[in-house]
Design brief:
heterodimer; A: 565 residues; alpha/beta; Flavocytochrome C3, Chain A, domain 1; Methane Monooxygenase Hydroxylase, Chain G, domain 1; B: alpha/beta; Ubiquitin-like (UB roll); Fumarate Reductase Iron-sulfur Protein, Chain B, domain 2; Rossmann fold; 5-stranded mixed sheet; globular
Chain lengths: 565, 522
């Protein structure tokens, strides 16, 4: 077969906050930079980050220091964080925020005209810089403008199917051009993986549709090591309706302003779980409490609980929660008069591709940044640290990749492997009859939600693993798309995504099965407490001899020793 | 159990690889509470037809991927709630090439944006931290909230008619976002002027379709940039200068060609047992060019027992100055008018021209505030609004209306419909006329191309927009095109004449007056 080969020096996979920042950093060198994105430049999931970006600028609280930002990050992460990476995060975050300003971002201001900072959960000081309630959008819009200034080559609507390797280095990537259906190869000495998270593996999620976890899957298939894949953050309040927006983030600010949670019989149930903090208990605890109410039959018919602010003065709602008010008004719910219906929702992968201080992976030429990279957040991520990590490690990855590309030998391709990949990619399109990608995906999302979600135990996780393994076998040989036209064939892309999702789900479940304790976001009902003696360790996942292999590795501790040591 | 309610979705299908032209396929989708149009598309894709192509990503109105035409109006599928009593036609965004079905190639829009140096330009980086006040950044922040869904671009009548010359509201918004950014040192105003700043008709559709961001591109970006263009000697266009000079020398936007309305009428038109008392603000066109329209307004008010004051010494409302950026002359006229009206002591001002009335309602208060003047002490009303909502339907003189057996189609003036929110009132008045056959067309609110100084400054573009509007209106074969705007009126009269058509153009009050007088319009 023949296929188009496009040569570039640095290939960035993903055009979210991290990918765009990486491309900008790479473009400092005199190299050819190409960014590919599954959607359109400016529309990545980054735009949905509302809250802000953490940087210890100390604009409001003069006592804040990078050091304290680091301590907060590690303490929230149950000390699973790689502290080398945390040090870099907290020290570079202020510089990256100023970079964004240089590129054109406008952050909200203090009365003195400095960048405004808001308090966020589990942080000692007001540290989260923001632009109204659309910080992620401001960040990505700014990066988009900077990419346009630099005339960096962006290719929209391209789906990456596999990382190409030869002689233990990365040499490029194979893709399907969604708009034409053409199979193509990008050949590049350096590849930056910045493909975002995997919330879509769960039935209910805050994540955009693009976030199916292909970045993790592609890395794994290429022999790359991943870390902490059992650590998945659930946000307590996602909108329950309308169906297409199920899981959409309902900001913590609603509870911060005094919103209360009620079950279907009108009981303020948090009194039974945490009578002291009530609705403002930790995110994981509130999420588990809501899930318990729904599980035990005290949820609404939309499998949700009520979040009510209607008793608050109308003016407070209008002034302090304008976006929420408008979002709900659009779907016909006036939160000034009636309660919202909310459900816990899958939010963020703390784990991911294992990187070092230069954002390098164990595969030469491959770098990773943003949500797809693991190790920074440990067992739980601070609100505001995701945007920060994307900027910090995006820049590092871009610089490292450019440096590598400048000196690396030009890559050659393994054509046999590419032919095999082509066969795999085309198979569901050519199969006349078989399993439907939509239905299969729904089943996987449901199984993951029910068996590997907020509450985990040996039995459920084993059942999930069984499901995943069964379906992996079936799907390789039986998945078929009814849509045969190659142009913008969503069903076909979904079929390819499903194979990635199953692989990521397997990493989640196997890691969760291994960790026999509860730490960070990982909660085992059969091992409900922290076990520092046996489990103060990271879990690494990688492919060895064709098999998914898990291994404990010691946590990197530098400045912030855990309290039990 | 009741059978589940279904909603009908008629969807445009097109695969350029194999199809010669688009076709439509209809799907029936079970309705569920608070269902969005995006939910319906998902249902179709998952259950009825997996070959359907549509684009979406965040599903919460923050990424702008799912913009499509929903019953002819661009909008986000994820933010549009399904009304089970309606049927839906879904089409790809206008003004873009189709990739497949509902998916368009936004490339042309993006490329036009990219040409405008859409990034912050400053000669050197500042010291950190940089101080910026909240006031300094507020306008730029609003304009930066755009999610690039291109709904405004797809809806814009100037984009559709100016072709390559106008990069659309989104581009004007982008340029304004830098112009109003205190840090930016690029010359955005000049770029805007050479990129079609004066192509905007002020129709306001861009804000209407900007959901959920509600960016007022017409007002904040276009008129903001136009004001700066005038300040810097780059605007308004040659075609506007005459009007501005005319206002400066005579107080009116046009010259005197026939006896002004104010000279044809007494100071006060009295009626027996008046139910109300108003001042009629004719505006320049009615006073100096189309006096009969004004006489008809007075007749309708008289028939309804309203005592009418005629402001002999009024001057131009300066809508044209506001819309094209000539704010200095605008201030002068506003103060002159408001001082004069205060002296006349009438507390209700009624006008037919929505250009005048929206300017009086929305722009005058800003000028008075800027100039430290007290707010005006009258209430301004559009004539339709006055007759239906103020005078009241029950008091309206219906019994003297005589049959008018003609076929009428209505054109919504943008300055009445979008800028003042008045669209039901004129329709109510039309329907009141006995025997009238009123046809309401879907695109009744599409711009006629007259506003925003485009008729004066960009005549060809204006005529092209008018031609499209005329095609829509004439398709239903009306005897009369009704409207309620002196500006739309002369624009439509022109296009009817150019099309060699015998369709008549009349204002609502012209029709009411004809009906009171028992005229036959056939």
């Amino acid at each position: 077969m023949t296929f188009e080969i496009i040569d570039t020096d640095v290939l960035v996979v993903g055009a979210g906050g991290a990918g765009c920042r990486a491309a900008i950093a790479s473009s400092e060198a005199d190299l050819d930079i190409t960014v590919i994105t599954k959607d359109i430049l400016g529309k990545a999931h980054t735009v949905m980050a509302e809250g802000g970006i953490n940087a210890a600028l100390a604009n409001l609280d003069p006592d804040d220091l990078c050091e304290i930002h680091g301590r907060d990050t590690c303490s929230a992460g149950a000390f699973l964080n790689n502290q080398n990476l945390v040090e870099i995060l907290v020290e570079d975050a202020p510089k990256r925020v100023y970079d964004l300003e240089n590129f054109g971002a406008i952050f909200s201001r203090t009365p003195d005209g400095l960048i405004m900072q808001r308090p966020f959960g589990h942080q000692t000081y007001r540290r989260t810089c923001y632009a109204g309630d659309r910080t992620g959008h401001e960040v990505l819009a700014t990066l988009t403008e900077e990419l346009r200034r630099r005339e960096i080559n962006i290719i929209d609507e391209v789906f990456a199917t596999s990382l190409l390797t030869k002689e233990t280095r990365v040499v490029g990537i194979s893709v399907v051009d969604i708009r034409t259906g053409n199979f193509k190869v990008f050949r590049a000495p350096s590849v930056i993986m910045a493909a975002g998270g995997a919330g879509r593996i769960y039935d209910v999620t805050t994540n955009a549709q693009a976030d199916v976890g292909s970045g993790y899957a592609l890395a794994y298939k290429a022999g790359v090591e991943l870390i902490d894949m059992e650590q998945f953050q659930f946000h307590p309040t996602g909108a329950a309706i309308p169906p297409a927006a199920r899981g959409r983030l309902v900001t913590e600010g609603v509870r911060g302003e005094g919103g209360i949670l009620l079950n279907k019989v009108g009981e303020r149930f948090m009194i039974r779980y945490n009578p002291r903090s009530m609705e403002l208990a930790g995110r994981d605890e509130v999420a588990r409490s809501i899930a318990t109410e729904i599980r035990e039959g005290r949820g609404t018919e939309n499998e949700a609980v009520y979040l009510d602010v209607s008793f608050l003065p109308t003016k407070i709602i209008e002034e302090r929660l304008p976006t929420m008010l408008e979002d709900f008004l659009d779907i016909g719910i006036d939160i000034r008069n009636e309660p919202m219906e909310v459900t816990p929702t899958a939010h963020h992968v703390m784990g991911g591709i294992k990187i070092d201080a230069s954002a390098a992976t164990n595969l030469p030429g491959l770098y990773a940044a943003g949500e797809v990279a693991g190790g920074v957040h440990g067992g739980n991520r601070l609100g505001g640290n995701a945007l920060a990590a994307g900027q910090v490690f995006g820049k590092i990855a871009g610089g490292s990749a450019a440096k590598y590309a400048a000196t690396a030998q030009s890559p050659s391709l393994n054509r046999r492997a590419i032919n095999e990949e082509y066969e795999r990619v085309m198979a569901p399109l050519q199969r006349e009859d078989g399993l439907s990608p939509s239905m299969e995906t729904k089943q996987l999302q449901r199984v993951m939600w029910d068996r590997a979600g907020l509450f985990r135990n040996e039995q459920d996780l084993n059942a999930a693993l069984q499901f995943i393994n069964d379906h992996q076998k079936q799907i390789t040989s039986q998945l078929a798309v009814r849509n045969k036209a190659t142009r913008y064939n969503t069903e076909w892309i979904n079929a390819l995504e499903l194979q990635d999702m199953l692989l990521v789900a397997e990493m989640f479940v196997r890691s969760a099965l291994l960790r026999k304790e509860s730490r960070g976001a990982h909660y085992r009902t059969d091992y409900p407490s922290l076990d520092n003696k046996n489990w103060f360790t990271n879990i690494m996942v990688a492919k060895h001899n064709g098999k998914m292999t898990l291994q404990n590795t010691s946590v990197v501790v530098t400045k912030w020793p855990p309290p039990w040591t | 159990m009741a059978k589940k309610q279904k909603v009908q979705f008629r969807i445009q299908r097109f695969n350029p690889d194999i199809d010669d032209e688009p076709t439509y396929v209809t799907f029936k989708v079970p309705y569920s509470d608070r269902q969005g149009v995006l939910d319906a598309l998902h249902y179709i894709f998952q259950n009825l037809d997996s070959t359907l192509a549509y684009r979406w990503n965040c599903r919460t109105g923050q990424c702008g991927s799912c913009a499509i035409d929903i019953n002819g109006i661009p909008g986000l599928a994820c933010r549009t709630v399904v009304d089970p009593s309606k049927q839906y036609t879904l089409e790809p965004l206008f003004n873009f090439p189709i990739i497949r079905d509902l998916v368009v190639d936004l490339g042309p829009g993006f490329r036009r944006l990219e040409k405008l140096r859409p990034y912050l330009e400053r000669t050197s980086a500042p010291d950190r931290p940089e101080k910026l006040t909240r006031e300094e950044i507020s306008a730029a922040m609003e304009l930066r909230s755009c999610i690039e869904c291109f709904s405004c671009y797809a809806a814009c009548p100037a984009v559709a008619s100016a072709k390559q010359e106008f990069p659309g509201p989104i581009a004007m918004r982008e340029l304004a976002s830098f112009e109003f950014d205190p840090r930016d040192q690029g010359d955005r105003v000049q770029l805007a002027v050479t990129s079609g700043l004066y192509d905007c008709t002020s129709c306001g559709i861009c804000k209407e379709v900007c959901i959920p961001k509600h960016i007022d591109t017409r007002r904040t970006a276009v008129e903001g940039l136009r004001a700066l263009a005038v300040e810097r000697g780059m605007g308004p266009l040659e075609g506007h200068q005459g009007f501005i000079k005319q206002i400066e020398s005579t107080g009116y936007a046009v010259d005197v060609k026939s006896t002004p309305l104010t000279d044809q009428l007494p100071d006060v038109i009295d009626v027996d047992d008046p139910v109300d008392e108003v001042l009629f603000y004719p505006g320049c066109l009615i006073n100096l060019r189309i006096q009969q329209v004004g006489l008809n307004v007075v007749e309708v008010l008289k028939r309804n027992k309203v005592r009418v004051h005629i402001p002999k010494d009024f001057v131009c409302c300066t809508s044209v100055a506001f819309r094209t950026g000539a704010r200095a002359i605008a201030s002068e006229m506003v103060i002159q008018n408001t001082d004069y009206f205060r002296k006349l002591g009438v507390n209700k001002v009624v006008g037919l021209c929505p250009g005048c009335m929206s300017t009086i309602k929305q722009d005058w208060p800003i000028i008075l505030h800027e100039k430290d003047k007290p707010p005006y002490d009258f209430e301004p009303f559009d004539i339709n609004e006055y007759l239906v909502d103020q005078l009241g339907f029950e008091r309206f003189n219906q019994q003297d209306l005589k049959p008018l057996p003609i076929r009428v189609v209505y054109h919504d003036p943008c300055h009445l419909n979008r800028h003042q929110g008045i669209s039901e009132e004129p329709r109510k008045l039309l329907r009141m006329i006995p025997k009238i056959e009123f046809i309401d067309v879907e695109d009744s609110d599409r711009c006629c191309g007259a506003g925003g100084g485009v008729r004066a400054g960009r005549r060809e573009l204006s005529q092209e927009i008018a031609r499209i509007k005329y095609e829509i209106l004439s398709e239903v074969k009306p005897d009369v095109i009704a409207t309620s705007c002196s500006f739309c009126f002369i624009q439509l009269v022109d296009v009817v004449k150019n099309s060699n058509s015998d369709i008549r153009v009349m204002n609502i009050t012209d029709l009411l007056a004809a009906s009171y007088r028992g005229e036959s319009l056939k």
